[in-house]
Protein 1
Amino acid sequence: MITRFAPSPTGPLHLGHAWAALVAAEHGDMLLRIEDIDQQRSRPEWEAAINEDLRWLGLTWPAPVMRQSERMGAYTAALDRLWSLGVLFPCTCNRRDIQAAASAPQEGAPLLGPDGVVYPGTCRGAARHGSRPGGVALRLDGAAVADLVWTDGGPQSMTAQAFRAKIGDPVVARRDMGTSYHLAVVVDDAAQGIDLVTRGEDLAEATPIHVALQQMLGLPTPDYLHHDLVRDAGGKRLAKRDDARSLASYRAADWTADALIAHLAISRTAPQPGAPGPG
Ligand code: GLU
Ligand code: ZN
């Protein structure tokens, strides 16, 4: 199997990332992909730190490393194809417009999907012909999505109707980026020949969006395996800002990689609060 570890270079890797990388390496030949489409938050220093942390863990991966910031051409081509299929529409709503429309009294409580509030459909009537508009967000028309099947541990499926209701019209190109996580991940998994996507369970509910995009773009659907998340002592998933759990801080406290790996494999939870120590 070809798997991948796909961190964003926006902060230090922590225990959760180590777990994700180890799962990827355990299930196949792991490729590395740097997910740096968010150029506002991505830093070369963090990419260098990712390399150092992964090598410290004993992981290796073949060159070249894929870097999303170098792949705008591939994302543009995919968007052009989707646009020519008539399945995208431009959306000029901001977050507040969407909140307001989704929580209008007749709508009941706003529905939550993988990207937050399910889009209430405000701009669905916008023109879809002519050349693809730039400088505007593009949404995938949820009504154009067919029934979906994929593998995630076991067989999974979602009907077209459930996609419309639960996910709606996801953004596939953000105004500020010209692409999105969903589009980039699908295009890149295919380009890297990934046949097993391992990643945290927080991304499981985004998978139908990825399968829908694969179908429309004529790309193969890999198998998926979503693993549990490393949580802190309070049960909250680790975030980038939890520097205390960074791999660099374990290293600085003289943990060996073997000790950390054993610790992760056994407890799958971070040590109790306080400075990390080899105890
Ligand atoms: N870049 C994402 C992250 O850092 C992972 C995306 C994926 O594995 O699909 O959480
Ligand atoms: Zn809109």
Note: The domain at 72-190+201-226 is CATH 3.40.50.620 (Rossmann fold).
Protein 2
Amino acid sequence: MSNSRQKILMCAPDHYGVEYVINPWMEGQLGHADRSTAHWQWQGLRNALTAEADILTIAPVPGLPDLVFTANAGFVLGDTVVVSRFRSPERQAEEAPFREWFEQNGFIVADWPQDVFFEGAGDALIDRGRSLIWCGHGFRSDLNASNMLEDIYGWPVIPLHLVDARFYHLDTCLCPLDGGWLMYFPPAFDAVSQRKIEAIIPLEKRIIVGEKDAQDFACNAVDLNGRIFMNNASEDLQNQLRAAGFKPTLTPLTEFLKAGGAAKCLTLKLQEHLA
Ligand code: ARG
């Protein structure tokens, strides 16, 4: 959609690991993520994305194993960023390095109250074709974050209520794509939110993801210029994506699934145009 090359923020997994449990994927995984495998998987994603975007990095910090999930750094639209306010105390120390990175890289940091939780592009997803923002709540970000984003950016924000703890961030179960397409796992949402999605996205533009693909983090995809980078997807889902005109590219990220993240979580798009 944009006329300039996308820029993506990533963080190398030098200090990555599963060191606490703040989502169901991390249960039973304490100390089980293999850092050297994580490194080559991360490098594999980075190399694949390099074909379509410039990769910028933030320095890894010892003691912050989830800093690799830069989708949670904040929410970027235009030159204004909302830096995340993490719900889990384990991740709150990430706010300072992320804020510093945005300040040093020319972003305007929007005012945001201390007491409203918001986990950035993990929960707020831009639907570029519709000029609207989908915003998840129920596990991490507060419902109130939706109103606040609307005030800051002037775009409509549609709150969606997440109800399955495995899909605690919106980007684990929903992915807006170019051309008005939307890939999502309906059971992750309450009935009212499912109706909201159906009211906005015409049936023929909905790509329904099944449970197995959802558990493989297929919705946690990075879409760039018609290509869709993802940990894994069934033949059926890949065929649906191809039929919609996209090119799925699988890049294994199993070490990061142990912490509850995959391709999209490991990236943050830095060029999102307001107009
Ligand atoms: N362990 C991290 C957490 O639970 C994983 C974050 C994944 N990020 C995402 N955007 N879904 O917070």
Note: The chain has a mean pLDDT of 97.
